[in-house]
Amino acid sequence: MPLAHEPSTAHATDAAYAPTERTVPTRARERAGYDRALVHAILDEAYVCHLGFVRDGAPVVLPTLYGRVGDRLYVHGSTGSRPLRAAGRQDPGLAVCLTVTHVDGLVLARSAFHHSVNYRSVVVHGTAYQVVDEDEKRMALDALTDHVVPGRAADSRPANAKELAATAVLRLDLAEVSAKLRTGGPNDEPEDAGLPHWTGVVPVRRGYGTPVPADDLAEGIELPAYLREPAC
Amino acid sequence: MPLAHEPSTAHATDAAYAPTERTVPTRARERAGYDRALVHAILDEAYVCHLGFVRDGAPVVLPTLYGRVGDRLYVHGSTGSRPLRAAGRQDPGLAVCLTVTHVDGLVLARSAFHHSVNYRSVVVHGTAYQVVDEDEKRMALDALTDHVVPGRAADSRPANAKELAATAVLRLDLAEVSAKLRTGGPNDEPEDAGLPHWTGVVPVRRGYGTPVPADDLAEGIELPAYLREPAC
């Protein structure tokens, strides 16, 4: 993973995003990365992000679903929702920060100070614009659905004109973006080695339970293959 | 769960937080709640929040650990980190939005439009202040540790003076706060009932794997009782 010790001389390549002043952390820089494949992998493993924007000068952070198509992220919502209304139609867009976080483990050190969490996160800074092109909007909504359940978009009724009109979609380009991650075990002070506390990592697991059919699911409609993952 | 259809006449009670203009959603108001026990339960089940603040006019959203003590939340970080530096020492504090989200299920409707997610979230608006009182700081750090792993604070070496000085703690009062949640199955349009798509809910599970001892864990130190939960 490329590191960014010299952001002023860095530049974007096919393999990595260019670090900027606000994507270079003020501390723990060795945990930051700009590798495109790493960023995409972290984004693709989750489907809920936390979207921040400024309203009346104050920050607002709301959880929302997202999808990725290449170097673009899409979020959607009711045309009446606050961020979607704020983003308006194209100009000037909405300054946002979109953050995705996976927690992979709890790191229990002998000292309280060195307790930590293993995680992988992506922070995207940028301006979100409402998607006005209908084809792009449909493509984005399919991407959103397939991001949550791969294969589902083709196995559901597409939005009709009324539903499409009631849905707003925001596009956010992946340009000013960084990943940050911590892996591995505790980093205790050498002088604490003899303390009697258990030390190690508790893995955090995510998974799915057995799908629960809706009460009115017609007989004969079987669970689709894309939902037949092993349960957690 | 009390609803807030008339926020202008609502007021805080022991049982509920008072709705405000920015804690009443513009849509899906029936999903919003202000019940204190509900808010606390959602906060206590998670330990990672997404903290939003404004820097140079733009939103920033960072994942961070938190703890709760009554109607106060605490987050911590290096004294050199951006939000902690921005919060300064007491005055004027830092305007923040702290959001916690649990995803409980994927809701697969017959129509793409009615796909949804079952979730429980809490959004806290307010001003975060640096904790300067050393006793409160120690108490907050213990609460943070015990929030992630209940019982762990007493089973680790407390921070020494140097570590305490390197750690900044922010306090955020729970006052302007709301919960939002969705539960239940898909809400398809009646005319879609005959469509051949599987419909229902895929439960989302969270859990822990088997704890992995650090390489240098001394023989004879057994896994503490507070970590002997059933694995996921």
From TrEMBL, chains A, B:
Any Pfam family the entry gives: Pyridox_ox_2
Region (Disordered): 1-23
InterPro entries, sorted: Pyridox_Oxase-rel (IPR024747), Split_barrel_FMN-bd (IPR012349)
PANTHER family, per database record: 5-NITROIMIDAZOLE ANTIBIOTICS RESISTANCE PROTEIN, NIMA-FAMILY-RELATED PROTEIN-RELATED, FLAVIN-NUCLEOTIDE-BINDING PROTEIN
Protein name in the entry: Pyridoxamine 5'-phosphate oxidase family protein
Lineage summary: Bacteria, Bacillati, Actinomycetota, Actinomycetes, Kitasatosporales
